[in-house]
Amino acid sequence: MNEIINFQTYFDVVPQSGDNLLLASYLQNLEVKGLIRIEKGKYVPTNEGRNEVVNMYAKYYEYLKIFDIYCAVDLTKGEFAFESRNNDFSDEEWIAFVDQERFSDLRVAIAEIKGIDPIEIVFMSFLNEGRFECSGVDWQYNLTEDNVWREIEEICNTAIRGSYIEEQGVVEDITKKATEISIQIIIDSESSESEDVVEETVETVTTTEYVDIVEMPYYEDYYWDSYYDPYYVSPLWLAVLLL
Fold first, then answer.
1. What distance in Å separates the CA atoms of residue 53 and residue 147, rounded to the nearest whole number?
2. 73: how many CB neighbours lie within 10 A of its CB?
3. Are residues 82 and 167 in the same domain?
4. Do 104 and 8 share a structural domain?
5. Domain shared by 105 and 141, yes or no
6. Residue 187 region, left (φ>0) first, then alpha (ψ -120 to 50), else beta?
7. What 3-state DSSP class applies to 203?
8. Sign of CA pseudo-dihedral 223, 226, 231, 232
9. What is the count of structural domains for the chain?
10. Which end of the chain is more exposed for a tag (fewer CB within 10 A), N or C?
């Protein structure tokens, strides 16, 4: 749906050949759900489809701002890798830093504690890693075949469980500190973005735009205050995406 709306890629209802043949049943399912419709032999988006993408972006934004911080936590010292965010790591140095044995990935555990489906959190982490980008090689295969979904399930099944964190009695300490760090990162990031405003050249798109494109949401700082409650869950996570 993101490819259809934001990149105006309107797939053929009857694909003639190529990897898009793999998408046929999925596109038909989206049509049944009312997220796309047929016009002149192409699948085009509906307002209902756009609303689903809006909801997905909102979830993804909250994942990046609130949940990704739990990817590397030193349970012995109570430290988060993200506390070192200002150390000017290169991408390679950052990956090596968070991969230290002292850090544990608590994203699945926190999802379980909050009553969120861990599969959604791991899916969001895959999005962040570019695993589903439609510009990649064999993206249709990666999106429709079972391998990547089995990988997501395996991560959920082997991750640290929420029950372990609760048994340690550190849920409130961990989530409170995570929220403090996250909100400070949000404030610093927005301040930096406002100082470095750069005019962008927008490429003219010649295809028909059926619905408005979808962009990342923006929230005032106070929006995040609810997350100081270790068990708070945004209503966004209670909605099941139809995509």
1. 24
2. 27
3. yes
4. no
5. yes
6. alpha
7. coil
8. negative
9. 2
10. C
Classified as helix, coil or strand, 223 is helix
Mean pLDDT by 10 residues, the chain (243 residues): 94 85 93 96 96 96 96 94 86 92 96 95 94 86 88 96 93 94 87 53 60 93 91 89 80
Total Cβ atoms within 10 A of residue 213: 13
Residue 193: what pLDDT?
58
E runs forming strands in 106-184: none
Question: Beta strand pairing status for 79-80 and 42-45?
Answer: unpaired
Do 150 and 39 reside in the same domain of the chain? no
Is 64 in the same domain as 172?
yes
What are the structure tokens assigned to 17, written together?
A: 């050949």
Burial group, residue 93, by CB count within 10 angstroms (0-12, 13-18, 19+): exposed
pTM of the model: 0.89
Do 39 and 93 lie in one domain? The reply is no
Q: Print the domain residue range for 140.
A: 60-195
* Same domain as 185, residue 74: yes
Residue 125 domain-assigned (yes or no):
yes
> Is residue 88 domain-resident?
yes
Measured distance CA(94)–CA(98) in Å, rounded? 6
